[in-house]
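Why does residue order matter? Because the sequence determines the fold. Keep that principle in mind as you read this record.
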Amino acid sequence: MNIADRIHHLRKTKGISQEELADKIGVSRQSVSKWESEQSVPDIDKIIIMSDYFEVTTDYILKGIENEKQAHEKPMNANVFVSGATFWSFVGLIVASAVWYEKQAVIAVVLGLIFMAMGCLLFGIGYSNSNLNKQKAKRNFWLINIWPLVFLPLSLVYNLMLTGVAAPYPAIIGNHVIAFPIFWLIYIAACLVVVFAQTRRVGGSPH
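Structure:
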């Protein structure tokens, strides 16, 4: 690989667009595009900034020389942790609903939130220690997990406001029939806002 290939490889490994890399190092997207297409070479100060950002040596960017740590370090894909986090988020929702159906006790919500917190913690730790596809993993996490993560707290607030009971899913209450569809409108709208924002980021990173 030449310097253009290495910059392209590092950017793709990081899971960012040319525009995002340009913002990080203080140049235009066109400059990054020219570097990757071998039309120009970055100045040494920009190479130093990139080496810090990508956590590699300047020798690697310039000459492809890896230090001992890089040579033995295996890349950890952040997307792996999205699956684990999603599993625990939906387990939390299912457990909360099942326990509430049987017990009608506040422990149902507590258990659900604990499982969801475990999923978020798992993703957070994995994300922090990963060095591959981090930005893509972050987007994937929110595209999927926003649905269970918003549902349980919103249901809790809905039920406490209308009945004073800490239930994990919205109840249809005779005197407040209109509140039920309003809950679903707010829930779907909130989730779609996050999904739209994340999808727009994906769509804005084609390079």
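The chain has a mean pLDDT of 88.
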